[in-house]
């Protein structure tokens, strides 16, 4: 009798514990990943916030070939998940067949048909060492410049993108898991995908979990970005608002307005331009 009682209790404990584990790890399952300790090898990339337990336990998500979905500005996900305000299109995502491309129903017109986004695959990005999910919509948008080389066409902008990514990942003082910015802007008037809307970046210390960063490729201390680059950045922000990635009452700042930033970024000339943009907010960012 006593033995039986103990084992019922144990069964209860196991049930409680594992319901919890299953519920939490289920989010990783939706990404077709496995929860594992980050000391293990992951042939894709680690995503945090999807697994139960220790913060060292993360979701290893396989690397799928999603380029065709991304270039339609969709998101590859399990059809078990709701495709809010949109519909699933098959044949655009890698991985299992129930992994499909969720494309906004309001279509590219309500989202981004006035912006050309060059996907990571298109510019030849390296795989991130790990990623963190971003909570959206964000309420802050920071403008940066790379303070490096400018570019004027797809070929030169790809080279600059690869250079910035290598610098952010390989410079021991930075050692970021990926290129730091959310998006970059080329002199060719195209937007280059960095971490995108849904992954937390490394760009504006103290603000990274609450902000997206749009960085102009080049040094804009005394020169202006091209008019097509300026238009592209503004269209991108408007598109982010329409897609629910950026809050409708967001505030726009230059990197120099971050608390304790100690930087002239995004350069005097570019900073004077963004002061005239929608929702630019004077003073130190909250
Ligand atoms: C870079 O960061 C990783 C952890 O993300 C760490 O293991 C490694 O030692 C760091 N490298 C340098 C040069 O600091
Ligand atoms: Zn900056």
From TrEMBL:
<feature type="domain" description="Peptidoglycan recognition protein family">
    <location>
        <begin position="115"/>
        <end position="259"/>
    </location>
</feature>
<protein>
    <submittedName>
        <fullName>Uncharacterized protein</fullName>
    </submittedName>
</protein>
<dbReference type="GO" id="GO:0002376">
    <property type="term" value="P:immune system process"/>
</dbReference>
<dbReference type="GO" id="GO:0008270">
    <property type="term" value="F:zinc ion binding"/>
</dbReference>
<dbReference type="GO" id="GO:0008745">
    <property type="term" value="F:N-acetylmuramoyl-L-alanine amidase activity"/>
</dbReference>
<dbReference type="Pfam" id="PF01510">
    <property type="entry name" value="Amidase_2"/>
</dbReference>
<feature type="signal peptide">
    <location>
        <begin position="1"/>
        <end position="24"/>
    </location>
</feature>
<keyword id="KW-0391">Immunity</keyword>
<dbReference type="InterPro" id="IPR006619">
    <property type="entry name" value="PGRP_domain_met/bac"/>
</dbReference>
<feature type="domain" description="N-acetylmuramoyl-L-alanine amidase">
    <location>
        <begin position="127"/>
        <end position="267"/>
    </location>
</feature>
<dbReference type="InterPro" id="IPR015510">
    <property type="entry name" value="PGRP"/>
</dbReference>
<comment type="similarity">
    <text>Belongs to the N-acetylmuramoyl-L-alanine amidase 2 family.</text>
</comment>
<keyword id="KW-0732">Signal</keyword>
<dbReference type="InterPro" id="IPR036505">
    <property type="entry name" value="Amidase/PGRP_sf"/>
</dbReference>
<dbReference type="InterPro" id="IPR002502">
    <property type="entry name" value="Amidase_domain"/>
</dbReference>
<dbReference type="GO" id="GO:0009253">
    <property type="term" value="P:peptidoglycan catabolic process"/>
</dbReference>
